[in-house]
Recover the amino acids of this structure.
């Protein structure tokens, strides 16, 4: 290899499984646009085609999708190198592009826009460096590999390539990013898919899954108390927990917290404030001064959801479609 060929990374839908490897192609789908060769060879024309076909797309998304289509048809050249990480078998597949773009009109898989590829070899993911894996883990469908090009070129040519020890900082950053993305997803769903009263019902359901009996108060005249929770069935035995729910991303101040606490009987009741946002320093200081008051912010609330998610009713699991996944963590050094 001359080393002048572009190295392209591509992600293809899991629904295709290993068919691209078995049949010698790569695909980006977009069947509804038809044969992409019928679109004028310009980025503006591709933007117009995407915008016309998908009028509901956000303005910022149109050039991204149009750019992917344009590159697939016009910028990938015969002889370019392809890197395809296939999820079903956890391999990194390496191949070279053969010929021009074509439209598989007799294709029934929903992914007719293709380039022929001569697959050369498949290498287990674990043999690549963490930095290389991070680059081909890009969230976009089609991208050029640049930062770790030498490592992938060595893999293509069958030369030894450095698989350095795991970069702990990179792993930790990737793990933290995955956690942040999931937390953001949960909070956005709870904010956008529920009205305030449905959010209160969701909180009550979570408390029930934690072993409490919980009931939502009437919609008016609750005095800042949205939920009453208790351990015994009848609610006679202390402590009684009075809960206020704020379906907001804003910062909750001390006055709101103090309002809830004003309804809490110190000797036999607890106050619990739950928000999707955060609390001011004054609110946290107020919490520290009260032994029977607890403030849960969005991050802490999501952590409780994770802990009890398996016992949620199906309707709430549909609201928050999550699956368990393991991400690398850190291990404390022994003293």
């Amino acid at each position: 290899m001359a080393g002048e060929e572009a190295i392209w990374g591509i992600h293809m839908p899991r629904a295709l499984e290993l068919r691209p490897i078995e049949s010698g192609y790569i695909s980006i789908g977009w069947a509804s646009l038809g044969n992409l060769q019928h679109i004028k060879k310009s980025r503006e024309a591709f933007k117009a085609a995407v915008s016309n076909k998908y009028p509901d797309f956000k303005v910022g998304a149109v050039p991204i999708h149009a750019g992917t289509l344009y590159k697939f048809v016009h910028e990938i050249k015969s002889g370019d190198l392809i890197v395809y990480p296939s999820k079903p078998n956890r391999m990194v597949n390496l191949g070279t592009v053969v010929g021009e773009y074509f439209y598989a009109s007799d294709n029934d898989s929903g992914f007719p826009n293709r380039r022929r590829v001569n697959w050369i070899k498949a290498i287990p993911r674990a043999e690549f460096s963490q930095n290389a894996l991070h680059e081909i883990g890009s969230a976009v469908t089609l991208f050029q590999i640049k930062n770790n090009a030498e490592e992938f070129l060595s893999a293509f040519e069958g030369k030894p390539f450095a698989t350095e020890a795991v970069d702990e900082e990179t792993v930790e950053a990737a793990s933290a990013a995955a956690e942040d993305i999931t937390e953001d997803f949960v909070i956005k769903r709870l904010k956008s898919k529920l009205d305030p009263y449905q959010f209160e019902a969701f909180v009550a359901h979570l408390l029930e899954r934690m072993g409490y009996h919980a009931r939502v108060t009437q919609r008016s005249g609750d005095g800042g108390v949205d939920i009453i929770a208790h351990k015994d069935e009848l609610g006679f035995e202390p402590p009684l927990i009075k809960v206020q729910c704020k379906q907001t991303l804003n910062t909750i101040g001390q006055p709101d917290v103090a309002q809830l606490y004003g309804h809490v009987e110190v000797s036999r009741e607890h106050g619990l404030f739950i928000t999707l946002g955060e609390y001011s320093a004054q609110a946290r200081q107020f919490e520290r001064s009260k032994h029977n008051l607890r403030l849960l912010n969005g991050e802490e609330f999501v952590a409780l959801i994770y802990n009890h998610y398996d016992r949620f009713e199906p309707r709430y699991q549909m609201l928050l479609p999550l699956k368990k996944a393991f991400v690398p963590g850190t291990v404390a050094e022994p003293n």
Notes: Residues 168-192 form the longest helix (25 residues). The chain has two domains: 7-166, 180-319. Residues 54 and 145 are 29 Å apart (CA to CA).
